[in-house]
UniProtKB/TrEMBL annotation:
Domain NmrA-like intervals: 7-229
Gene3D superfamilies: NAD(P)-binding Rossmann-like Domain (3.40.50.720)
The UniProt record lists the keyword Oxidoreductase: yes
Pfam families per the UniProt record, alphabetical: NmrA
Entry keywords, A to Z: NADP, Oxidoreductase
GO molecular function: oxidoreductase activity
CDD domains: PCBER_SDR_a
Protein name, as recorded: NAD(P)-binding protein
Gene source species: Penicillium cataractarum
InterPro entries (UniProt xref): NAD(P)-bd_dom_sf (IPR036291), NmrA-like (IPR008030), NmrA/Isoflavone_reductase-like (IPR051609), PCBER-like (IPR045312)
Length: 306
């Protein structure tokens, strides 16, 4: 079946993930417009049209989105306040599909709303579900959930091995399986969701979970050691429960840098369903591969420049 070319507005097109999405959509033959903030000084990705608007001006957004098939948000750190106007404009413009800036590990647990790093994304999902309530609505939504961003996790050493410090940290033993995704694979997944009407319709009004691999911190440490030659020694053992207790205290004292630690609660915490990611996985339905050991090793070599 031939792929369908769609008219797509992309918010956040110049970001780390957004730029990958922009390139993949353009390469797939879609008509892509980068919707940038009025005060943005960043050039739009090469080959894309660009329009600058006030993200909080509903009328400007309606005008921009009218005639578009899909609106994709890849803005960093979305909040309900920032996304609500965009969602309302999509509905008013009869956009066929809105994809929020979710791209996170696991939002299906009711506990996710308690996490500072996930609360706003949960609120956006809840708002979407409340305003798009009928199968006959001209506007639908699909969120894409991806596991941890492998490109960034490896570079900054947050999932076991840290190539910069040459040390490793294992959370709750280092043997819990989590999903990870390459930025390029996330972009490919979005292209797959849009390429045919059957896939497009199957994903309406629900989350879609995709990943590049399912790994443990212990396994990542072993592979990174093989790739780089670094001996990470005896890993530091960290209790996620104790880490979150300490992070709660840091946040109370105004230390916002502690927010990153709540990813570990989302991935490993009891009841947060991080280990259930693969039960929700759409890779097979979309024709996406799960990386083999050699593919994972090659990806790590490329990310770390070895």
């Amino acid at each position: 079946m031939a792929s369908i070319a769609r008219k797509i507005s992309l918010l956040g097109a110049t970001g780390a993930l957004g730029s990958h999405i922009a390139g993949a959509l353009k390469a797939a033959g879609h008509d892509v417009t980068a919707v940038q903030r009025k005060d943005s000084t960043k050039p739009a990705p090469e080959g894309l049209k660009s329009v600058k608007v006030d993200y909080q001006n509903k009328e400007e957004l309606i005008s921009t989105f009218t005639g578009q098939d899909v609106v994709i948000s890849a803005v960093p750190f979305p909040t309900l306040d920032s996304e609500k106007t965009i969602i309302d404009a999509c509905i008013a413009a009869s956009v066929k599909r809105f994809m929020p800036s979710e791209y996170t590990t696991m939002l299906e647990s009711p506990f996710a709303i308690n996490l500072p790093i996930a609360k706003e994304k949960v609120l956006v999902r809840q708002y979407l579900s409340s305003v798009i309530t009928s199968a006959s609505s001209p506007t639908t939504w699909t969120s894409v959930n991806t596991g941890a961003f492998l490109d960034m996790a490896l570079k900054y050493g947050v999932l076991g091995p840290n190539p910069m410090s040459k040390k490793a940290i294992f959370h709750d033993g280092g043997d819990k399986v989590i999903a990870v995704s390459l930025l390029s694979d996330i972009a490919t997944a979005i292209v797959k969701l849009l390429e045919t009407d059957s896939k497009f319709e199957a994903a309406a009004n629900q989350p879609v979970y995709v990943c590049s691999a399912a790994v443990t911190e212990r396994r990542l440490t072993k592979i990174v050691s093989e790739v780089t030659g670094i001996d990470f020694g005896t890993p530091e053992q960290v209790s996620v429960k104790e880490l979150i207790e300490a992070s709660d205290e840091r946040l109370k004292n105004g230390d916002q840098s502690a927010i990153i630690n709540y990813y570990f609660q989302m991935m490993y915490g009891e009841g947060y369903k991080g280990g259930d990611f693969m039960k929700f996985n759409w890779n097979e339905r979309l024709g996406l591969r799960i990386m083999s050991e050699q593919e994972l090793k090659s990806a790590i070599q490329q990310i770390l420049g070895n």
